[in-house]
Amino acid sequence: xxxxELPSSEFVFKHKKNGTCNLLLVGTYWENKGAxxxxxxxxxxxxxxxxxxxxxxxxxxxxxxxxxRLTIIPFVNKNxxxxxxxxxxxxxxxxFFILPTRxxxxxxxxxxxxxxxxxxxxxxxxxxxxxxxxxxxxxxxxYNDKGLAYAxxxxxxxxxxxxxxxxxxxxxxxxxxxxxxxxxxxxxVRVISPLIKK
Length: 198
Description:
Blueprint: H1 9-14, E1 21-26, H2 35-47, E2 52-57, E3 70-73, H3 81-92, E4 96-99, H4 109-115, E5 120-123, E6 138-141, H5 148-159, H6 163-177, H7 181-197
Parallel strand pairs: 1-2, 1-4, 2-3, 4-5, 5-6
Helix pairs in contact: 2-5, 4-6
């Protein structure tokens, strides 16, 4: 996670979220990150009777979208104290991180979401599967899905007693045990050491 300060597990789980199902997408390019698919997922959830909202941070749509359940934050500079505080609040106050990316190598933002116990839903493409362990810190959705499968999975999690909280706990655990720079460094040393000894 490329953030200078990250919350403790204790702090994350003490923080109370409101009753609305808040979805968060953080990305630089609207089309590349599949933001239109995330908007479709939001609309499908609302059709299903879920009180849902979507925040897209970091990019804007090519054409204006009139949707009172959609909030667009064009840019946040996480290199400033104000920007870090804003991102901190966004990650803390949302329930799911959604990124129907069209292509990606290793989205570091998934690690950041994990630090906040924010389960991820993303398209099954590129290196995304290296970050998401199905059912532990999120779900991989078929690349060609236009939003319905995202909505169905979110509703399934919300409708199954205990599933959301268990998913939050395992999401943070994945961050603590695997998706942090300390763990990466240890694994890197483990892999590279035999080669150096030769």
